[in-house]
Amino acid sequence: MLKTMRNIGIMAHIDAGKTTTTERILYYTGKSHRIGEVDDGEAIMDWMEQEQERGITIQSAATTTYWKNHQINIIDTPGHVDFTAEVERSLRVLDGAVAIFDAVRGVEPQTETVWRQARKYNVPCVGYVNKMDRLGADFYFVLEDVANKLKVKTAALQIPIGKESSFSGVIDLIEMKEIRWEGGGENPAFSSISDERETCANEWREKLIDALSGVSDLITEKYLAGEEIEAGVIRSELRKAVIKREILPVFCGASRRNLGVQPLIDAIVDYLPSPDEITPATGINLKKEEEVKIPCDPNGQPLGLVFKIQYDREAGSLCYVRMYSGSIKSGSSVFNEGKKKRERANRILRMHSNKSDPIDSLSAGDIGVIIGMKLAQTGDTIGSESWPVLLEKMQFPEPVVSISIEPKTISDQDKLKDILAILSKEDPTFTIRENDETGQLIISGMGELHLDVLVTRMLREYKLGAKVGNPQVTYRESISVKNEHSESFSKIIAGKENAAGISLRVEPAKRGSGNSFINAAKNASGKAEIPSEILEAVERGINGAFSSGIVMGYPCIDITATVTDIQYSELTGTEFAFEACASMTFDEACRTASPILLEPIMAVDLFCPHEFVGEVMSLVTQRGGHILSMNSKTDLNEIKAQAPMEKMFGFMTSLRSVSQGRAFFSMVFSHFEKKHEK
Question: Which of 407, 503, 581, 591 could form a disulfide with 565 if both were Cys (CB 3.0 to 4.6 A apart)?
Fold first, then answer.
């Protein structure tokens, strides 16, 4: 069963045709009986009301379909940078991916981002150049652009017949046949290569064999011996190279016109790995505190990763789970390794976008939804108490844009908190904090569009009455010098004294390295050994203080806090006292360590026609940005820059006005930098 399973994602820049291609795959594999169009708001995979209105994918949608006796689990991911966490958590659990490129624009900014994410998780890919029927489409330019920008060895398995409006089919370089689609793309028609295209086809076939001989000894031997290289041998050697990420095989088509989709589905089955062909997942054995490999065995101990939570009004939390080992049966109990709590898998579902079918069990290699787990969060490992293994948690980028939100009436107050709790459980890049001075709730996200989508969901889906402020930048705080501080705490509660004493050293860490807590005082001033619950209370106090800020109340980053001494007495030392004392010690130590305010700096990618380059570069520098590089393409110039987030609000409007609406840009968080006073 594992050999005939594929877990794949469809990834690309916004508007490259991910959802359109997925809709065709579902139609031709018989999963859906009509083709849903994104432009009409009828795409099956874009089921959210806002996705249909905006014509973009916001949430990754999962579905399962079948092709030539193979089960294909597909996740259609968003292309907009604000929803990069959706892509990240999808790629974490996939075995292969289809990277879609726009035939006119080639590699776009978000393509590079998703490619880096795929490389991080070692996800083998096949490439698909879409929109070959568009004006300016150039398959060969895209091949070169992919090789240069993504630093990957490409191999064209097809070349197009015609281009732009005359694009009518492809030449298969393995079978050496022409493929055309008659009657709306239903039935591919195969024919011999025509004389005028034979020279070009032979040249590209030679390039394919050459690329493959660089990674396959068998192909090299056959080539040097002058032997005929059979199609089956090419496919099997190519499959090995793709799984090792040595080659990116590239296909082409025009999904909107139903051209080129079936060979792409064949490629998913032929070249992308089954769950037992990829490198086994690694985890930490909590008992032995050592790294262990997790073989993909349906008969092994159960182990799975919760990679996404979606809230359903009737069913509660839908936990999307990728099983790495063993199986979980419907109605059985599972153990949440991180929370150390037992939960119940009441029902298990096979998802098809927002619809579902119940299944009896979920086995190694498969992806499904478990209903009934109340404590599970994104990144949690579920398994059994007898095999305590924790899978690596997912890392998500920092939210950089905030807005204030407050309920219109008192009755809406509790409702707002419940809704925010649901949304933050669904989305790990959505955070909530309360402003100490104003009492306002501040919500933070990845960008203006991200927050706009979340606020619209609250107002419409949950019918909440709320007042929303304008977007603000989410700053961070840190320190610039090393400092030491000692603090004592004493409070009498219910006639009992609660006392604690802590000495702490704080020092700035390398920018981007994050916070770290070190306890160098395991014994109380060199005397009695301190109970573990007291040490845990000290750690909780410091970690809580990291998130509550120093002067302005923004979260702290890049600080190393080391506890150098603990004053503990068995008679008066309580967890409460030490947690409070740790927080106070950290606050005082940081206040006198020259605290600094850090602002988010964004990596900005701009595309504009040649005649507007000067105006666009000038606009970026006016907003405090720095131009890093400029690259000239056939019809556009690509400008890479960095700019402070604070100055980038409303940038789209200004960009449109200086470029007559012909320039566009994308922006993603880069790093935090000290904010310079005006």
Answer: 503
Length of the chain: 678
Q: Where are the domains of the chain?
A: 2-271, 281-391, 401-474, 481-593, 599-674
Topology of domain 2-271 in CATH is: Rossmann fold (3.40.50)
Neighbours of 677 (CB within 10 A): 5
The alpha carbon dihedral of 323, 328, 331, 333 has a sign of: negative
The amino acid at residue 220 is T
For 45-109, give the secondary structure using H, E and C. Answer: CCCCHHHHHHCCCCCCEEEEEEECCEEEEEEECCCCHHHHHHHHHHHHHCCEEEEEEECCCECCH
pLDDT in tens, 48-84: 454 444 444 445 567 888 888 888 888 766 645 555 6
The CA-atom distances, in angstroms, between 641 and each of 102, 227, 659 are 23, 52, 17
CATH number assigned to the domain with residue range 481-593, chosen from the 4 options 1.10.10.10, 3.90.420.10, 3.30.479.20, 3.30.230.10: 3.30.230.10
CA–CA separation, 234 vs 218, rounded Å? 10
Which residues, in sequence order, are CB contacts of 526 under 8 Å at separation 6+? none
Residue 555 tokens read as 């979260």
The helix or strand, by DSSP H or E, that contains position 654, with its residue range, turns out to be helix 651-658
Instruction: Say if residue 507's pLDDT is above 90.
Output: yes
CA-to-CA distance for 32 and 24, rounded, in angstroms? 9
What phi, psi does 319 have (nearest 5°)? -100, 110
DSSP string, 471-509: -EE--EEEESS-EEEEEEEEEEETTEEEEEEEEEEEEEP
SS3 state at 551: coil
| Each residue's pLDDT tens digit, 259-315 | 889 999 999 999 999 888 888 888 888 877 788 888 888 888 888 888 877 777 677
| CATH number attached to the domain at 401-474 | 3.30.70.870
Alpha carbon dihedral 45, 49, 52, 55, in 10-degree steps, equals -100
Residue at token pair 């999307």: 320
pLDDT of residue 132: 92
What are the residues whose beta carbons fall under 8 Å from the beta carbon of 184, sequence distance 6 or more? 258
- Evaluate whether 401-474 and 599-674 have a shared fold: yes
What are the angstrom distances between the C-alpha of 591 and each of 482, 504, 508, 514?
11, 13, 13, 19
Quote the pTM value: 0.70
- DSSP 8-state secondary structure symbol assigned to residue 42: -
DSSP class of 452: H
**What is the number of other CB atoms lying within 10 angstroms of the CB of residue 580?**
19
Phi-psi bin for 453: left (phi > 0), alpha (psi -120 to 50), beta?
alpha
- Residue 529 pairs with which residues in a beta bridge? 523
Largest CA distance in the chain: 99
Read off the tokens for 235: 């496919």
Closest CA to 370 of 338, 334, 341: 334
> What sections of 324-480 are H helices per DSSP?
411-426, 448-460
- CA 588, CA 591: separation in Å to the nearest integer? 5
599-674 is a CATH 3.30.540.10 domain: no
Among 248, 254, 271, CA closest to 161 = 254
Q: Which CATH architecture has domain 281-391?
A: Beta Barrel (2.40)
Beta strands in 245-344 (DSSP E): 248-252, 281-285, 290-294, 303-312, 316-325, 327-329, 333-336, 341-344
Containing 628, the helix (H) or strand (E) segment is strand 626-632
